[in-house]
Amino acid sequence: MSRIYTRTGDSGETALFDGTRVSKADPRVEACGDVDELGSWLGLVRRSIDAADLAEILDAAQRDLFALGALLADPQHRISPRIEKAAIGPDAVVRLEGWIDRLDAELPPLRRFILSGGSEVGASLHIARAVCRRAERRIVSVEPDAVRDLAVTYTNRLSDLLFTMARAANHRAGVPETEW
After folding, report:
1. What separation in angstroms does the CA of 156 have from each of 51, 66, 72, 101?
2. What's this model's pTM, rounded to 2 decimal places?
3. If exposure means fewest CB atoms within 10 Å of the residue's CB, which of 32, 42, 90, 163 is most exposed?
């Protein structure tokens, strides 16, 4: 039986998928941490959602974020290509865009900036959107490669989706948006 604690990180280092030891302050580790935090926020939001379509979207996004974290933690691209559930590609971005378009079709046109808030679900989705933007900024700090580029595009689009989901949740709840 394995223990949850290994003591290998007690010196401020952690291991990437390829076994490389790096500082826990390494940009790649920071990016993985922000992606993990975002996934946790999505789990919290999902718990409050009654709408099956929104819950399914959040479930899929959480799974994508796990895969994205795995890819970011594998700088040599040695392990993640062999793990099917760690596969994420441009099709995931297209899927996000489809959800954005579908949800946006039920919303009134956006004419001004809006303040975060609204219903409990809407406000929580706005927090998740802000965390997503932070994760995106952190990912940008990782050395450029195809995985990093995909991760930046994915998180950029995911934040757009979370914004649209917040608007949809508020609209469905009959809670008006507060314009700025």
Report:
1. 24, 16, 16, 15
2. 0.92
3. 90
